[in-house]
Amino acid sequence: MKMLLQIGSLVGVLSLGGLASDTIDLGTRVELFVDDFLIERAEGVTLKLHEPVAAGVALRFDEPWEGAFSGYVTVLQDGGVYRLYYRGLPTAGRDGSADEVTCCAESRDGVAWTKPKLRLFEVRGTRGNNVVLAGQAPFSHNFAPFIDRRPGVPADERYKALAGTSASGLFGFVSADGLRWRKWRDTPLVTQGAFDSQNVAFWSEAERQYVLYLRTWTGGEFAGFRTISRATSPNFLEWSEPVEMDYGDTPREHLYTSQTHPYFRAPHIYVALPMRFLPGRKVLTDEQAGILGVTRGYVSDCAEAVFMTSRGGARFTRTFMEGFIRPGLDLGNWASRAGLTALGVVPTGTNEMSLYKQAHYAQPTCHLLRYTLRTDGFASVNAPYQGGELITKPLRFTGRELVLNVSTSAAGSLRVEVQNAEGTPVPGFSLGDSTEIVGDAIERVVRWDAGSDLSAFANRPVRLRFVMKDADLYSLRFRP
After folding, report:
1. Residue 419 DSSP label
2. Are 154 and 236 in contact (CB under 8 A)?
C-alpha cells in the first residue's frame, strides 16, 4: 500500500433520504475511482493511490543529435503503431535554440522501441536519423503532438501539434502520417502564456471542443509559481483567453508540466501527470554530482511526478498530494528536472498499461524509463482486512451487466447491493443475494442469486452499495 485518503473525511457520512445529490448519467462508460465523483457515503474504506512499477529502460537518448537535454516526451498509439516524440538536445542552451531537433521512435508493443532512419533532415552530417523536425527554431523546443479524434477532421491534418516560446507564441503544425509535418498557419494560434515547457492539446469528445493546457506563472512574467492554464477552441484556430487552473484547497507548488490527456478507456476523465519541481531543494552532494556527470547548474533542485485529474473546466482534482513516481534509489534521478513524465498513458497488454518518465536529465546517461500499472490502476477504493463499505450517488445507466475491475486477497471479498434512489435494497439484488467476489480481474461480472441481468433497472436511478474486505475496487462499468 502506498498512500491513503480517508473518504469519510472527504465526503462525510451522509443521509440517504431522498435524492441527496443529482443523478449521474453513466450510460455504459467506464468510471474510475480516482476521485469522489461517484461516492455518496463511505465508512472504513479509503481512496488509495497506486505506485507505478518500474519496467526498465524504454529508450536511451544516445544519438549525437539527442543527448543529455533530450526531453518533453509524448507517447501516442495509432492503431498497431506506438510513437515517441521528444526533443533532441546534446548541450544546454537557451529555449528554442537552433541545436534543438524533434525526434521520433517507434514500437509495435510500447515496450521495445526503435529509432527509424527517416532521412527527412540532415543533422550533424547525416540523414540517417530519426528526426522529424529540424531547422525551424524555436519549435523543436517543446513540440507536442496529438492525434486529432474530432469526427470529420481532414486526413492530412489527422496529426496536430503545438510548439513555440513566449517570444514566438504557440504555432500549429499538422501531418497526415505523424512523420512529415508542416506549419498550419504563418502566425501563432495562441500568444498569451509563458509556454516555457510542454503545452499540450487534444480534442475533447466530452466537451466537444479542443482543449489546451499551457504553462503560465502565478505572478506573470516568469514570477511566482510555475502553473497551468487552460484555453479552448471550437476549430483549433481561434482560442479563448487562457484561464489559470484551480487546484482546490491545496498548497501552491511548482507544476513544471501538466501532461494532461484523456484516459484511453474513459476519455471523459483527463489524467494529468505533472512534474512537481522543487527549486533550491538540493539532495545530491557536489561529489555525487561530479561522479554522475551532472551538468553544472542542474544540481541544486529536485523533482518528481505527481497525479491529478480533471473532468473538464478549469479545475484539477488533487485527491492525492503524495509523490506518484519518486526519484528513488537511483541518485541520477535526484538531479534537476529528472522527474519529467511523458505525455500519454497507453495500453501495453491485456491487463497492463504503461507510462514513461525521463531519467538522468542533464547527464551523459540521459534515458527514458517505462513504468506499468494494471489497467485502470491509478487509484482504487481500498478496504482493509477489518472491512468497510461505500454507497454511490444515484446512478442512471444503460446496459445489462455490472462489470468491476477488482482485486481481493485470498481472505478478502466484495459484495454488491443494488438500491433504489432512496437507499432501499432492491428485492433479489440485496447484499444477501449477492454472490461473493473473490479473486483478481480487470472485468468481473457481478452476480446475484437472480443472475447478472440488470437491464430491468436501466434508465432508472439506482445506488450501488459495495461491502468490501481486504480488497481494491478500481473501476466499474455497466456493459451492454
Report:
1. E
2. no
Confidence of residue 366 (pLDDT cuts 50, 70, 90): very high
The percentage of the chain sitting over the pLDDT mark of 90, rounded to a whole number, equals: 95
Pair (98, 230) in one structural domain: yes
Q: Do 113 and 367 contact (CB within 8 A), yes or no?
A: no
- The pLDDT of residue 22: 87
- Looking at the fold, whether 119 and 82 belong to one and the same domain comes out as yes
**111 & 202 share domain:** yes
What Cα–Cα distance (Å) separates residue 387 from each residue in 11, 356, 465, 471, 474?
Answer: 19, 35, 13, 9, 16
The per-residue pLDDT for 233 is: 98
One domain, residues 419 and 271: no
Residues 109 and 143 in one domain: yes
Q: What is the pLDDT of residue 10?
A: 41
Set of cell numbers at residue 254: 511548482
Cell digits for 405?
475491475
CATH number, residue 14: 2.60.120.260
pLDDT tens sequence across 125-150: 999 999 999 999 999 999 999 999 99
The SS3 assignment for 155 reads helix
Tell me which residue has cell 538536445: 89
Q: At residue 96, what is the residue type?
A: G
Cβ(138)–Cβ(165) below 8 Å: yes
Specify the pTM: 0.94
- Long-range CB pairs of 453-458 (<8 Å, 24+ gap) are 453/400, 453/401, 454/397, 454/399, 454/400, 454/401, 454/402, 454/418, 454/429, 454/478, 455/399, 455/400, 457/397, 457/418, 457/426, 458/397, 458/398, 458/399, 458/400
467 shares a domain with 392:
yes
Q: Measured between alpha carbons, how far is residue 429 from residues 103, 194, 421 in Å?
A: 55, 55, 14
Contacts for 400 with CB less than 8 Å, ≥ 6 apart: 452, 453, 454, 455, 458, 478, 479, 480
User: 96 lies in which domain range?
Assistant: 54-374
390 with 245, same domain: the answer is no
